[in-house]
Amino acid sequence: MTDKVFCLPNFSEEAEMLDWAGLHFGSTDSYALQHSIKRLSQMSGGDKMRFCGKIYGKEHDYWVACGELPAENEMEQDPNVEPRGFGVNSLVYWVSDNLLHDWIQLPDCRPEHIVSARLVKRVMTGNLNANVETNPPFPGKERHFLRA
Length: 148
Hints:
Blueprint: H1 11-20, H2 27-44, E1 47-55, E2 62-68, E3 92-96, E4 104-105, H3 111-117, H4 142-147
Antiparallel strand pairs: 1-2, 2-3, 3-4
């Protein structure tokens, strides 16, 4: 049995470049982030995993990672949604509010979420199940807004 080889960037090098740009997470968070993304890659089977950013929220902050997953064979494919691996769903996104905890995979992006998200600005709560109360109304939860 062969072990899968994961393609992961060296986050310590990326953290150094971010530090030059004035974005610094601290050595503890940078170390935890590097190992957390490696663990995410091993548990999810994802490839080409990388850190995408940190989004601040009122209750919790979101650490965001993205990568590629093999396309799923879904029985009922919605014709209005691009299949995984193509277009806006070419990458899969995960979030975590604590680098020592598990990552949560965000749902695939739908057209109505993208259209609605472009019309509003919102402060994140840090709760993926929170309702997004905006005007015009957003058709989903904070997890859908975050993904859009």
